[in-house]
Request: fold
Amino acid sequence: MATYEHPYPDPALAAAHAFVPFSTERRSDEEMQRRADDFHRLMEGRRSVRMFDDTPVPRRLIETAIRTASTAPSGAHMQPWTFVAISDPAIKRRIREAAEEEERVNYLDNRMNDEWQRALAPLGTDHHKEFLEIAPWIVVLFEQRFGTNDDGSKRTHYYVKESVGLAAGMFVTAIHQMGLATLPHTPSPMAFLRTVLARPETERPFVMFPVGHPLPGVQVPDLQRKPLDEVARFLD
Ligand SMILES: Cc1cc2nc3c(=O)[nH]c(=O)nc-3n(C[C@H](O)[C@H](O)[C@H](O)COP(=O)(O)O)c2cc1C
Reply:
């Protein structure tokens, strides 16, 4: 077992703030590799879906995915996120209409530059966002630019985008793990989401996730993921 010259927490810190023991189950390297391979296989099967079925999905499943996402690490443990989950058809319709309005400008009036449009061409995305009404849920993830202390004063949030990005990834993972599908959707600019969902000025939409069962027979682009040697460098 390793020994530390400067143990954490030191006695003064432990006297001033609460600490609890933490441990994980020690597993053999082989057992960990098996689990890692299983999880990797599961995640290789995740795909962004652009046609959902209208089969209802219980609210409890969405709650659990949000709980899981909210276990994400965050700068100074501020958890600077709000998930707004919508199944109300009237609100979903308003979101679809506003998203399509923005996307019409992006795609048809060339607000997205040529390079961007060329990058999107193989995905075949366009300004039609029917899935926003058909998917049983839309979950909008807001970043909290700063928070509020009990006395009403402003509380600084740290590494907001990094933290919210981690929570977003864990939300996507949770949804896939339970057997549902989602799509990270960013009909830019997304400021309309703050108005439609009546969120405070301190919050900014980060990404939205339609969630549901994939439509039977749905197709996805035939994408390849980069091999390990293109995404990693090892210095060992
Ligand atoms: C931050 C972010 C924003 C995205 N925005 C959109 C979007 O607005 N519309 C869309 O159809 N796909 C969007 N996507 C999905 C990507 O196109 C998709 O993740 C990528 O093509 C890889 O496919 P996969 O998720 O099936 O692996 C977004 C993905 C991310 C991470």
